[in-house]
Amino acid sequence: MVFVVRAGGKELFRSELLKEGVAGVPVAVDPSGAVELELLVEDGGDGIGCDQADWAEARVTLADGTVLWLADLPLEWAGRPEPSRAVPFAFSYGGKPSAELLPHWDSRLEGDGTGGKTPPLPDGATPLRRTLTWRDPATGLEVRCEAVHYADFPVVEWTVWLKNTGAADTPLIENLQALDAGWQRTPWPPFEDCEFFLHHWVGTPCTAADYHPYTDRLGPSQAQRFANPAGRPSDSVMPYFDLAWPSQGLLLAVGWPGQWAAEFRRDGGTGLRVVAGQELTHFVLHPGEEVRTPRMALLFWYGDRLRAHNLWRRWMLAHVYPQPLQPTLFACSSHQFGEMIHANEANQIEFVDRYHEEKLGLDYWWMDAGWYPNQSGWPNTGTWEVDPARFPRGLKAITDHVHALGMKSIVWFEPERVTPGTWLYEHPDWLLGRDGEQKLLNLGHPAAREWLTDHVDQVLTQQGIDLYRQDFNMDPLGYWRANDAPDRQGITENYHVTGYLAYWDELRRRHPGMLIDSCASGGRRNDLETLRRAVPLLRSDYIQEPVGNQGHTWGAASWFPFMGTGTDLTDPYDFRSTWCSAFIACWDVRRKDLDYDLLRRETALWRKMAPFFLCDYYPLTGYSLQPDVWIGWQWDRPETGEGVVQIFRRAESPYETARFRLHALDPAATYRVTDLDHPDQARSYTGEELTEQGLPMALNARPEAGLLMYGKE
User: Fold this and answer.
1) CATH of residue 689
2) Helix residue ranges, H only, 327-395
3) Which residues have C-beta within 8 Å of that of residue 566, sequence separation ≥ 6?
4) Per-residue pLDDT averaged across 587-598, rounded?
5) Distance in angstroms (rounded) separating the CA atoms of residues 462 and 511
6) Residue 6, domain extent
7) Would residue 48 count as lying in a domain?
8) Model's pTM, two decimal places?
9) In this predicted structure, what is the pLDDT of residue 555?
10) Does 703 sit behind a cis peptide bond, omega within 30 degrees of 0 on the bond before it?
11) Given this model, what pLDDT does residue 23 score?
12) What is d(CA 493, CA 490) in angstroms, rounded to the nearest whole number?
């Protein structure tokens, strides 16, 4: 074979004739400003036969210094079908499948990615966008697929919009699937581990087993179906999946803050089909109406699943999470009070001052549920005004005090749940539900959303609130479906979802740089569309208990580089079990008997470690909630050769020592490893020792948390 590199119409490199068994040939060329490279392998004259070739470690350095690796780029197959015949979505229209209809409709492709880049996303990223549009000349139904291709990650995502541009109702639209596509695995060898394996995770039903990982083998004619239980997208099942087959696979996310479903179905041979979308769609569209599908995102990977998840984490940080984003320390008074209903101006300022006096270094003071007028407890929501009896100068007196001490403020809202006796309950045309019971504020109602946007914007501005926390402690699915006519099933949900996203988009536009917290009974609304606008400061309402929270980190970190939880416990084992990039301190600092020296030392360690929680993540043990095991993981920053290892010996483990094989280290380099509880006992190891033999660790107490930092010497 002969290897060739071309750029800008010129041949920059051509190898000699290479045969089986010869050493690899180094390639280094200057593309001289070219914007496209061709890497070719040509036959050497004897036919392709059993030729095998690899561009090993191929990479290119861009003008801005960014390095792109060939193995990280998405594959596009030469000779692929025309767009109308290769779309990754599907629906039925008037009883006919879209695959039969779209090729015969008028179509156009905009944004081919060859230079006409669309405006950047809000975080400054500049992905390439393509829009494919089809229009039925008979009925006026317009189908628009907006796709985003990330040149720096092997990721593609898309959303499909359907709009009735005609003068009459459309025929029936059914089974609208954002994803309908198939993959084939290698047909040989017929071994057990050469099948499709589906990795999936529990959502957040508020148990120790939140984020529990599972793996299922999908053999011929087998299928797995997933759906969230009642309208909140990450309640009990995560809308994130890892589908693997020999040496490759894909990570998949369903971005839909509503009721979604996904099915993975094997055929009788070597193929698998994946279908995902809004669970129920059976409707006609009135003239001018428009609906959308979930946002789908796929990351294609080859070789190493752990590396694939770290690519996902990096993509989330670069292109998904809102900015600015950095490790953050919060303190929340509601956990000390039990409810904010007992809070007032004086005791809130007392708490803030005590944290400041003890030099615990807060970034945010957190005021949770109950600051509004209510006599029956915090769940009585629907009047979004500050209670003048407890806060005669409003929350502004507290936020001003917080700001003067160099902190910021976060305040809790739950606008969608409306209870009897509140201001919003007197606007029944904006609400869904039965009279006398709690109702759902219909964010698909334009007037309701406009009022909410203006009112919350006013409260945030007047009260000096820096971070908006939105909770959602109800299941919306029953409210949505009860409002739909037989030929309009799924419409209310679709409009509510688009209204919810539009509401947050407008709040962020009016408050640039303001973060939103996505809490929904703790972590039940963390789909991809939500996380484009918000961060999960409370990944689960199951907090405090250390073993469950260790399991939460083990599972959730594969998908979420930024997340939060907290504790009111002070022991280092308990405290470290809840460390995340966002930590919520729930200590009752009115108590003078707490070990504040210990808290200051531990929070300082968290400060030192927290930036690594946004780096690459590697589990060092299997997942387990059993009390007699060790569990741990590694956070690695390959750019600097530094990292952190967290290890936990649980209360009933009989073992005092263990070894943990680290990941992603340079085998030829020497690393200095420091036990942060015994910094005078640092030791040096080669990368090969740490990755092959493992890092030795001794924990004598039960339970005990080990914390180590390493760096290249």
Assistant:
1) 2.60.40.1180
2) 334-337, 345-357
3) 330, 332, 335, 538, 543, 578, 583, 584, 585, 586
4) 94
5) 13
6) 2-72
7) yes
8) 0.88
9) 98
10) yes
11) 86
12) 5
Mean pLDDT, the chain, as a whole number? 92
113 pLDDT above the threshold of 60: no
Is residue 81's pLDDT more than 50? no
Summarised one tens digit per residue, pLDDT across range 485-496 is 999 999 999 999
Contact 98, 90 (CB under 8 A): yes
**Reported confidence tier of residue 139, pLDDT bands at 50, 70, 90:** very high
The widest CA-to-CA distance across the chain, in whole angstroms, is 90
- Inter-axis angle of helices 345-357 and 396-404, nearest 10: 10
Measured distance CA(257)–CA(278) in Å, rounded: 10
Domain count within the chain: 2
- Taking CA 81 as the corner, what is the angle to CA 291 and CA 91, rounded to the nearest 5 degrees? 25
Q: 467 forms bridges with which residues in the sheet?
A: 410
Burial class (CB in 10 A: 0-12, 13-18, 19+), 411: buried
| Final residue before a domain boundary, out of 72, 90, 113 | 72
Helix ranges restricted to H, 569-630:
572-576, 596-609
Task: Point out which residues pair with 683 in neighbouring strands.
Answer: 673
Range 110-133 average pLDDT: 60
**Rounded percentage of the chain residues whose pLDDT exceeds 90:** 81
> CB burial class (10 A; 0-12, 13-18, 19+) of residue 56?
exposed
With CA atoms as reference, report the closest residue to 481 among 174, 259, 277, 177: 259
pLDDT digits (tens, 9 = 90+) for 289-342: 999 999 999 999 998 999 999 999 999 999 999 988 999 999 987 654 555 668
> Quick check: helix, strand or coil at residue 2?
strand
Handedness of CA 416, 422, 428, 430 (dihedral sign): negative
**Is residue 671 one of the residues assigned to a domain?**
yes
Contact call for residues 296 and 181 (beta carbons, < 8 A): no
Q: What's the CA gap between 523 and 471, in Å, rounded?
A: 10
* Greater pLDDT, 333 or 351: 351
Residue 273 amino acid letter: R
Instruction: Out of 37, 72, 107, pick the residue that ends a domain.
Output: 72
**685 vs 487: CA distance, rounded Å:** 68
Query: Domain for residue 662, yes or no?
Result: yes
Q: How far is CA 289 from CA 141, 259, 490, 556, in A?
A: 10, 21, 13, 38
Peptide bond into 324 cis (omega under 30): yes
Sheet holding 90-93, edge to edge: 96-97, 90-93, 173-177, 282-283, 488-489
In whole angstroms, give the CA distance from residue 310 to residue 184. 25
**Residue 117 in this model has a pLDDT that exceeds 70:** no
- Reported as a pLDDT band with limits 50, 70 and 90, residue 65 is confident
| Residue 172 predicted with pLDDT over 80 | yes
**Residue-wise pLDDT tens digits, 182-199:** 998 877 555 556 889 999
Domain membership of residue 270 (yes or no) is no
Angle at 460 between CA 458 and CA 465, to 5 degrees: 160
